[in-house]
Specification:
This protein is an all-alpha fold. Helices cover 81% and strands 0% of the residues.
Amino acid sequence: MDHSAHEHEHRDHFSHGSWRTAAQATLHCLTGCAIGEVLGMVVGTAAGLHNAGTVVISVVLAFVFGYALTMRGLLRAGLPVRRALKVALAADTVSIAVMELIDNTVMVGVPGAMDAGLTDVLFWVSLFLSLVLAFLLTTPVNRWMIGRGKGHAVVHAFH
C-alpha cells in the first residue's frame, strides 16, 4: 500500500471517532499518566510534602511519562526527536491535562486521601478511583478530538 493510501485509510478510520478508538487512545495516554501520577503521589507522600507539592510533582511526572510513552512509538517509527516531541505535544496535551485535572481533583477531594500514608488502603483506593474516573471522563474528550483529526489521531498517521 502506498503512503497516500495508508494516510487515507487512517483518516477514514479516525474521522469517525469511534468509542473503541477513543478508549484505546485514552488507555494509552492513561498508561503514561498513571505512571507519573502514581510515582508523584508516592514520592510526595513518602517525602511528607504538603498536598500542593505532591500534586505538582504528580502533574509534572504525568506529563513527562505521558509524552515519553508517545514519543517512544514515534521515535521507533523513524521520526526525529524534535518532530516526535511536536507530535506528542499535539496528540497528548489536552488528554493529559483533562486526566490530571480529574485525578488530582479526586485525590484532593476524598477526605484524608492526600494525608494517608503509603500503607493506608484509603490512599491506594482513592488513587485507583481517581485513575478510573480520569479514564471514563477523558474518553469522550478523546473521541471528540479524534473525530476531528486531532489528539491521538495525529499519532496514528505515523504508525
